[in-house]
Amino acid sequence: MALRIAEDFYLLKPGKVIFAESGDIVYASSSVSLILAEQAMVVDTGLAMDQETILLALKELGLKPSDIGIVVNTHLHPDHCGGNELFSRAKIYAHPLEIARTGAHCLPCPQSLGERVRIIETPGHLDGHISVVFDESIVLAGDAIPTKNNYEKRVIPRFHTNAEKAKESMQKIIKIAKIIIPGHDDPIFVLK
Hints:
Strand content: 25-35%
Largest sheet: 7 strands, mixed
Distance between the termini: 30 Å
CATH superfamily: Ribonuclease Z/Hydroxyacylglutathione hydrolase-like
CATH class: Alpha Beta
Radius of gyration: 15 Å
Number of helices: 5
Strand order of the largest sheet: 1-2-5-6-7-8-9
Oligomer: single chain
Structural class: alpha/beta
CATH topology: Metallo-beta-lactamase, Chain A
Helix content: 10-25%
CATH architecture: 4-Layer Sandwich
Low-confidence stretches: none
Number of domains: 1
Mean pLDDT: 96
């Protein structure tokens, strides 16, 4: 079920992560968001197995995958881009470093995707990690801030390539955001 977060912004599917007692990740699938700006845009597409959930949420809003003009992947781990094939007519964007790392058939993401959507670099989890800023108040953080716990305790992602950059990226997001859409949790309403 699509959840309206703000005008022209919907959460199609919340992210989720399940840990084993050992601390290993048993299951992870990203948040999938819909921005209705100049073009309909999806940010991150979850796992391939999430496609039916995404289709149902779109249908509830009167949309089909072919109505989506842009897909932005915060990074190219399978739990964030596994549903990209659902949007075969869309321009699919990612950071150039992620495209080089994976060999994925994506376009290098520009810094702006219209008047209401901009892209910020948020390295740390991976060098080519990006986040999406909508209306200068909602930040789709991907795994720069994967869960509420990371935000509340100001703990960087467990999996990272550079701890210092991960910390800087988290601070950058918190400074901008009124609402954070974490990679693997429900929305976070930022108290300033």
